[in-house]
Amino acid sequence: MADGATQMKSDLGLYDYLPWPGRPKITWPGGKRIAVWIAPNIEFYEYNPPNNPTRTPWARPNPDVLQYSHRDYGNRAGWQRMMAAMDRAGFRGSVSLNVALCEHHPEIIKACGDRDWEFFSHGIYNTRYVYNMTMEQEREIIRDAFDTVRKHTGQTLAGWLSPALSNNFWTMDLLAEAGIQYTCDMFHDDQPMPVKVKSGRLISMPYSLEMNDVIVYNTQKVTPRHYGEIIKRQFDQLYKEGNESGTVMCIPLHPYLVGQPHRIDAFAEAIDYIAGHEGVWQTTGREIAAAYHASGAYDAMTAAMESHKANGGQI
Amino acid sequence: MPMPDDYLKYPARHYGMDHDRYEWSDLFKREPIVWPNGAKIALSIVTHVQHFPLDMPSKPFKAPGALSMPYPDFRYYTNRDYGNRVGIFRVLRLLSEKGLRTSFAINGIIAQRYPAVLKAVVAGGHEVIAHGLDMGKVHHSGLEPEAEDQIVSEALALLRKESGQSVEGWLSPGRAQGFNTPDILAQNGVRFCLDWANDDLPYRMSTANGELLAMPMAYETDDRVVADEYFQSEADWVQQVKDRFDVLYRETADYGGRVMSLPLHSWVSGMPYRVEYLREALDYMLSHDGVWAAPVGEIAAAFVGQDSSAA
Question: What is the domain extent for residue A210?
């Protein structure tokens, strides 16, 4: 491993423990019960990517035309169906963007920008991982992402999901140092939580593996109609709990999957169901992070974790 | 070892695709296609007919459905071969009852081993598409062009001879290709190929030897994928086929004709307990107005006849 990180650790060391009961109350703008955000991963997978010793981009030798073209379906066909369903339900997207897509498919970027969707970074390509990079190389990726998104969309990046969820121990420090406000790479909570970084302030934003279409369809082998049921169940519970303290629900998507004709209607019906409830804040990652700070929740959670530790709680 | 700095260089980071095989195109912004007789949906039914050699290699990768037990794998060798002895004839009988002319993607070696299969397919009025030589001969970039050309030409020659058809369609085993495959296919008289899973309409690909048409074929509603990769029930498969059809059919009102593809395997849908689910899926789609079921080659020809995006 690069930069002398040769010893394996038993703990990420990136957040303190705080049990769910008794936490500071989270208040969302307008007294909404639940913040619901949808994060489409708009991705570009390379036809002939270089290898990374830790992870090979494709299962078959380059070019893996079946998997490559399956991903490409999202950028030719799937994104339009996904966007139409979100438009109908009144959701803006928070795009988890492989930023090279700005150069490859500006048409898709424009359609998202026209709808005031947020762009956050999902690395340069989904076939380039940060494994084995030096800190300086990883800083270069972060700079590239900031510059590319600013140049093509006018937005300043607020969020980050590492490409293909590849990470190094120092990744969170580098993100915070560069001014990233929230990371989507950790799944330890369903409330936004402070991340322990060397400088700045970084929020771990609930993003969810289990609502993520790629996990649901390809790992859990769930049918499209059952995915619709899962989304509604998750929403019902978090909506109910939102009476006590503001909750967050994220639906991470991939247009090459959810945008398939046999899947789109069940998904669309589920997000229509969510939008049909009172007290739902249909929002973006950036807006949730801003509200979390503005309401004092970040400071209150930080203080609660310190107090828990001081009172004999571990870690 | 740190990554070389080249890992942060992106030579193909520019507008459009990162290769020269085809242009990017938005499915929802194309010239509307009208299928013959004003049909909305071209229903493309492609049944795989496959031979998995007992000694099939595992490198560089195995095609899906490959034998997976220790050699000699009696279990899967014979289970797959069931499709060639029984399953395909059950599927053919159903298609005949429905009066459907479709396509069969057949490993070239089948023509030599089981000429009766070719005879029945041709007699049913179906189109023969080449499905490589056998399931152990996957196409990949480690093959020398001459070796790959040898596989392609042998598969085509066997199928052309036995079927008497021109055989201009191609589906690679495992839908796998190397960098050279489209060039080699075009050189051997192949006009369309079904490997690329990125569209619901045909589109044009460039090769060193002229144009090749990419024909749509669904990936995730393939009978084998649903049964053997997702482990979902037959009823779930039918539901997804119907749902897929419904959305494509609805889109034709605003965007012109679509292709609804239905990939089948003789050793999957040809099982006794599955074939009636196939009937249910077919009955559902055929109960709609404006559904034109045709061999892939005829769908390709109808597309070429009106598409103005010639490369």
Answer: 33-286
Q: What is the CATH number of the domain that holds A186?
A: 3.20.20.370
Burial B66-89 (b: 16+ CB within 10 A, else e): bbeeeeebeebbebbbebbeebbb
Domain B32-306 adopts which CATH fold?
Answer: TIM Barrel (3.20.20)
Q: Cα angle vertex A64, ends A61, A69, to 5°?
A: 170
pLDDT (tens digit per residue) in B72-126:
999 999 999 999 999 999 999 999 999 999 999 999 999 999 999 999 999 999 9
pLDDT digits 0-9 by tens, A279-299:
999 999 999 999 999 999 999
Per domain, the residue ranges of chain B are 32-306
B194's tokens: 């079904």
Tell me how far apart the alpha carbons of residues A219 and A24 are, in angstroms, rounded to a whole number.
35
- CA dihedral A174→A176→A180→A183, nearest 10 degrees, is 90
Q: Identify whether A315 is part of a domain.
A: no
Q: Chain B residues with CB inside 8 Å of A105's CB?
A: 16, 24
List the single residue in B199, B231, B246 with the smallest CB-CB distance to A76. Answer: B199
* Per-residue DSSP letter, B19: S
Identify which of B13, B19, B220 has the shortest CB distance to residue A47. Answer: B19
A237: enclosing H helix or E strand? helix A224-241
B230 touches chain A (CB under 8 A): yes
What is the distance between the alpha carbons of residues B178 and A58, in angstroms, rounded to a whole number? 13
Per residue, the 3-state secondary structure of A165-232, as one string, reads HCCCCCHHHHHHHHCCCEECCCCCCCCCEEECCCCCCEEECCCCCCCCHHHHHHHCCCCHHHHHHHHH
